[in-house]
Amino acid sequence: MVAICGGENVRCAPYATFGTQRLSEHVLTALDGRNACLLSNHGSIGCGVDLAAALAMAQEVEHLAHTYLLARQLGEPLHLDHDEMQRVVEKFRSSYGQR
Length: 99
Fold this sequence. Notes:
Elements: E1 12-13, H1 21-31, E2 36-39, E3 43-46, H2 51-72, H3 82-95
Parallel strand pairs: 1-2
Antiparallel strand pairs: 2-3
């Protein structure tokens, strides 16, 4: 489900003080080509064509984070390799209605 965010991972923007130009630059870099990102020491951002879609994306990122945290309790989760993630991302773009 990571692919719903638009890439093979969910990027994390480096920390910067809230309300600063530096933080907005970090966020724009992390969101480049993506629908969501994490913000170090702040939270997450989800984007969508409207408020409902943005909220759904943010909720999906929260769900992914929770699932990953639970999986880490059992050891290192399996990570799909780059080629497989590219296939999954493309399927999300075409089959799941993601743009």
